[in-house]
Amino acid sequence: VLQQPMRAKHCQLCQHCVRRYDHHCPWLGNCVGERNHPLFIAYLSVQLVVLLWGGHVAWSGLNFEQSWDWLQHNIVLLISFLLIVIFTIVVLLLLVSQLYLISSNTTTWEFMSHHRISYLRHSELENPFDQGIVLNLWRFFC
Q: What sequence ranges are listed for the domain Palmitoyltransferase DHHC (predicted)?
């Protein structure tokens, strides 16, 4: 019988045991865990910057006028801008939630499934891995 390391999870989609498993990302088609979690945060950050830049470009290209004729000429740009706003909100929320969990040294999987995880089941209010915000962030990014 193999014993699974603490904080590891076997991903049913990838068929791999992932250390410090956070989640399986459908957009990347890969698990996010100990070896690539900082890269995932960098990916989200770059994605957010590109979306903000794209939103600025789309907004700058819109020509508002008194009559509603402007809508006919700018409909594609307006729809693009609205989609960019939606994606920006989603990416921003994902990035903020990831940074919050990282600051408490918790993974998404641990946060969502703490009641089923043996080493977290009895610690509803306390995370045994939390070492304070500064040290948690330092150990994650450095």
A: 3-114
Q: Which are the catalytic amino acids?
A: 25
CB–CB of 107/20 below 8 Å? yes
Q: Which two tokens stand for residue 77?
A: 């740009």
Domain ranges of the chain: 37-141
For residue 110, what is the DSSP state?
A: H
Please report which helix (H) or strand (E) contains residue 11, including its range.
strand 9-11
CB crowding 11-40: b at 16 or more within 10 Å, else e:
beeeeeebebbbbbeeeeebbbbeebbeeb
Which residues lie closer than 8 Å to 37 by C-beta, 6 or more apart? Answer: 20, 22, 102, 140
Predicted TM-score (pTM) of the model is 0.88
pLDDT digits (tens, 9 = 90+) for 47-95: 999 999 999 999 998 877 777 777 777 889 999 999 999 999 999 999 9
Tell which residue, 118, 110, 123, has the closest CA to residue 37.
110
